[in-house]
Design goal:
The complex is a heterodimer of chains A (about 375) and B (about 280).
Chain A (H helix, E strand, L loop, with lengths): L3 E10 L2 E11 L4 E5 L6 H9 L6 E6 L2 E2 L10 E4 L11 H10 L7 H13 L14 H13 L5 E5 L7 H18 L3 E6 L2 H7 L2 E5 L11 E5 L1 H6 L4 H6 L6 E11 L2 E6 L2 E5 L11 E6 L5 E16 L4 E6 L7 E5 L9 E5 L6 E4 L10 H10 L1
Parallel strand pairs in A: 3-8, 3-9, 6-7, 7-8
Antiparallel strand pairs in A: 1-2, 1-4, 4-5, 9-10, 11-12, 11-14, 12-13, 14-19, 15-16, 15-18, 16-17
Chain B lengths: L1 H19 L17 H4 L8 H32 L5 H14 L2 H11 L6 H8 L16 H26 L3 H9 L4 H29 L3 H7 L8 H11 L3 H34 L1
Helix pairs in contact in B: 1-12, 3-7, 3-9, 4-7, 5-10, 7-9, 7-10, 9-12, 11-12
The chains are: A alpha+beta (about 375), B mainly alpha (about 280).
Protein name (chain A): ATP-binding cassette domain-containing protein
Pfam families (chain A): ABC_tran (PF00005), OB_MalK (PF17912)
GO molecular function (chain A): ABC-type maltose transporter activity; ATP binding; ATP hydrolysis activity
Amino acid sequence: MSRIELRGISKRFGDTPVLNDIDLSIAAGEFCVFVGPSGCGKSTLLRLLAGLEDPCAGEIEIDGVLVNDLPPAQRNVAMVFQSYALYPHMSVFQNMAFGLQHRKLPAGEIERRIADAVRILQLDGLLQRRPKELSGGQRQRVAIARAIVRQPKVFLFDEPLSNLDAALRVQTRLEIARLHRALGSASMVYVTHDQVEAMTLADRIVLLQPLAGRNDAASVAQAGAPLALYHHPANRFVAAFIGSPAMNFVDATVQSLGDGRVLADAHGMLCAAQLSPQGLAVGEPVTLGIRPEHVLLGEGAQRARVSHVEHLGEVSHVYLELPGVSTPLLAKSACDDIAIYDVLAFDLPAQAMHLFRADGVAQARGDAAERSVAAVNG
Amino acid sequence: MLLVLAAVGGWPLLRTIWFSLTDSELADLGDYAFIGLENYVGEYGLLASPEWWQAVGNTLLFTGLSVSLETLLGLGVALLLNQASRLRTLLRAALLVPWAIPTVVSAKMWSWMLHDQFGIVNHHLLALRVIAAPLAWTADPQLSLFSIVLVDVWKATPYMALLILAALQMVPVDCYEAARVDGVPRWQVFRRITLPLILPGLLVAMVFRTLDALRVFDLIYVMTSNSRDTQSMSVFVREQLIDFGLVGYGSAAATCLFFMIALLSIVAMGLLRKTFERAAA
């Protein structure tokens, strides 16, 4: 089994810190997704695992072996590149065989492995073609097949879907998920900037944040199961990144503290949040957060005017003007008869609220939060 | 555009071909008689002249030696320069110096350096005890063509290196990274990835240099003048035309040279097209 351990990994390019202080362990067979905005170093972290870059500090262990000083070839990893990196002058068959030919494999082994990969990725009939004669999706499958035939302990994917169109991306995403189930024991590390890919594929998400020149910040904003990041973001950065459209944020001050309840004043609007009051003080400036899908329209005591509506068919995005707040509050609604300038009643359910302290750290929410949010939606 | 081309290229060419069919002489260009192919296949015609065939042999030997050496050295230099380094930009500029010096100047410079009595090359080789007695680099029939090839290699290798470097930089970096992750040995990477991918560029550079080398004149003329042992086709043409004043005969030689190069160009272009089509497929 192939477990990956990262301990205290840092990476700088010249004077620019890219990754800082990363401690991470990826279990054998786990599908781990590195996600984050551009410039957060997620691809660099993957290249550190592959051995294409060397860390400035820290240790990398694969399968209990310290690989810091091992060349990529000896780490037993296979990488799928964003640009596919197929050899343009070789046929599909040669592309797959090239990485194996120098290893002394028993006769027929290369052909057998390629036949397996062709079957898994449905590449029949393409073996003699050059990469130029393939569509983007086919090239992507060849690149994945080239990784499979090496039978590595760890698969590394560097934004493999970013060059595909939307429909193909969804289809290939499903194929990768299926592949992970089929290959079972191999771990997969997958880099993407697309949170939908991260949420749908990952057993575990590692959300990285850009250091923006700061040496003291840690690169990992939060690591955990997709729904844990969604329901219990550790800080404002995670809350804003995960979820689409993004969470609404409103500045507020703490009004009163109760048992498992915080009351906050957001520009005259009193909001209750069902979360731990621990460490908060009355009068403290905080930020309230609520996801668009949790804002209830057509009920409750609050009133607001609709400044803009986007009808997407299955759902409508309704922008509500709040007094004293420049950014409108976004609500998702199943009704498609809402028009601009309507005045609507709305409610911000206490169990759906998030609360962030001035330094961005989230106030712990109870385990009940997920269930009660589900109840609200139901 | 075609008119200009016809005026500067077509007219002199046609005139040369016409002269090659006459017995005109430099002393009086107006006074000539049409003699058909006499200059080519006659008793004293070009194709029966051992001097001409020696010049053809010299040219081919020179071309073969210099282009292959320049290709090998150029490839080596280009591979070295392709490693990212701060020095690279500086080196690239410095490389061009031999190419930028006019051939006559560098030929003269090398003639002095290779001078058998006062040359710095003999001086150092003697001091290092590599040779026991001074060598007549440019006068010894055994050595002179070799010396000329060396000077041409010195001059044209940078040109080859830069053209090959341009081709090398077109090879996608991620192909190398993919090979690295797969643990493909360096030699395999070079032979199976680098070489096939730079082949079109490499061939273009070689064709350019070959066509250039076939017309070689200034280097040989400056270093060894009209010596039969090193005379190239172009030097032969000049000797006949100017020194001997045989405009008709010299024109016949020039025409032969032209058709040889034209033929080679057509073959080379066909070859290149095939390579490019294969690379593009």
